[in-house]
Amino acid sequence: MVYLQITLMIASANRAAAAGVYQRYKAPFLSTVAGAKSKELLVREEDVQVLHGFDSRENAAAYLRSELFTADVVAGLEPLLGAAPDVRIYEVA
């Protein structure tokens, strides 16, 4: 399993809108993105993280270049961000 973790700095006032973006694109992510296995929204006091599960590092990296991510998800979240997202890919040992 491979995880794509995207950490977002989103102010408390904008978190409901960010959760709406997450909900809007969760089903399309799971049904259309190659190798997609899971998608979870993790909310902490200091940030919001979206944890995506994939079957391979290549599919995780390809998602970051996909139209769904660049044109839809990024466009929906960009006005809500307080800083550039931190994007990391992890492989389960």
Describe the structure in your own words:
The protein has helices at residues 15-32, 57-65, 67-77, and strands at residues 2-8, 36-43, 48-54, 86-91. The chain has one domain (2-91): Alpha-Beta Plaits (2-Layer Sandwich). A four-stranded antiparallel β-sheet has the order 2-3-1-4. The protein has 93 residues and is α+β, with helices and mostly antiparallel strands. Helices cover 41% and strands 30% of the residues. The protein contains three helices and four strands. The longest helix is centred in the N-terminal third of the chain and has 18 residues, at 15-32. It is globular and about 35 Å long.
CATH C-level class: Alpha Beta
Question: Which CATH architecture?
Answer: 2-Layer Sandwich
For the secondary structure, the number of strands is 4
Helical percentage: 40-55%
Percent in strands: 25-35%
Based on secondary structure, the structural category is alpha+beta
**Main sheet makeup:** 4 strands, antiparallel
Describe the strand arrangement of the main beta sheet, using strand numbers.
2-3-1-4
Question: What is the gist of this entry?
Answer:
It comes from Cupriavidus neocaledonicus. The chain has 3 helices and 4 strands; from the N terminus they run βαββααβ. The protein has 93 residues and is of the alpha+beta class.
Keyword list:
Alpha-Beta Plaits, alpha+beta, 41% helix, 93 residues
